[in-house]
Amino acid sequence: MELDPRLKLTLPIEEIEPTALDQIEAALKFPFLKLLAIMPDIHTGYALPIGAVALLEDHVWPAAVGYDIGCGMCHVTTGMKRSELPDLEELFKHLSDVIPVGFHELKTPAKEVTPFYSASRFAALTDAVMYHAVRQLGTLGSGNHFIEIGGNKEDTVGITVHSGSRRSGWLVGDFYMRLTKGPVELRSKIGKAYLKDMKWCLQYALDNRLKMLQACLKALGLNPPPQEDIINETHNHAIVTSKGVLHRKGATPAQKGQLGIIPANMRDGVWITRGLGNKEFLCSASHGAGRRLSRTAAKQLISTSKLKEQMKGIVYPPFKNTALLDEAPDAYKKIDEVIARQDGILVDIIDHFAPLLVMKG
């Protein structure tokens, strides 16, 4: 593929899988696409690859945000030392009781959910979003979402929560992707409606993460820290800027000085970063290691014995048959290579937390 000057790569083009390349080529056909930056964790997504950042002129593209609107991470570095942690098995059981994971929902609907009224005026969407919103606030979900308690080299404990807007955000994303079939003008009725509904999803996703983070802190006997001590990054969103509409699909914001989070996998933990404001790559960084194997392939090629061996010393969910194999470390790219392609270029690495306890759906 002949390189378009609007395409900025953090890795050799030969290493990008063919289906992701097809999605890149399709995006470059839009005359209103100003810049497309590809992160080192790129892999095939819906319409646009995961690990892509697109700047569009006067257009918003719901599919370039995806289904999990507002998905992101919160992290807090506590003052607690590893030696002060309670029994991790007991802690895991407690957190499993208070934080629903997978397809489990709240037993009692939440009352603190901000009401949603779809700007599309489609009543069925409003009703469906609210039905799930009150039942899923403070729930983790499944897939690559996680709660991780780990320690850095100073043995200080850190808590990281990765989750999004749950079924509510999926419904909003699905509705507008079906309705638009591609980018739409920013000033159009549907463009304005999407941005308004997306904004609600972004806030709901943050509220969802914060509620789980607070549950973890409470379980450790810690008080909620000041808001400024919590790192929050959203890696699925669209932002209207003076230079165009910036879409991140699985990409961490990395403005100059901005703190961010890049997780690897269940075994290798999370990296805390400080953005370098690299405008060539739209002030972004990877949002993880990136998948090496599809979920189906992972379950076929990775053994349960290998997963158990890799996770020794880490408390993680018990599983049966092939459950969790699609989230095994070997399902992801080598994090060292992914980090090397952005360290000092897109971000500076300032800390790393190795996992002690991992929750997944």
UniProtKB/TrEMBL annotation:
Print the keywords alphabetically.
GTP-binding, Ligase, Manganese, Metal-binding, Nucleotide-binding, RNA repair
The entry's GMP-binding residues are 144-148, 235-236, 263-266, 287-290, 360
* EC top class named in words: ligase
Binding residue positions for Mn(2+) 1:
D68, H145
Q: Does this UniProt record's set of keywords contain Cytoplasm?
A: no
Q: Which SUPFAM superfamilies match?
A: Hypothetical protein PH1602
Q: Which reaction is recorded as catalysed by this protein?
A: a 3'-end 3'-phospho-ribonucleotide-RNA + a 5'-end dephospho-ribonucleoside-RNA + GTP = a ribonucleotidyl-ribonucleotide-RNA + GMP + diphosphate
Q: What is this protein's name?
A: 3'-phosphate/5'-hydroxy nucleic acid ligase
Q: Which organism is it from?
A: Halodesulfovibrio marinisediminis DSM 17456
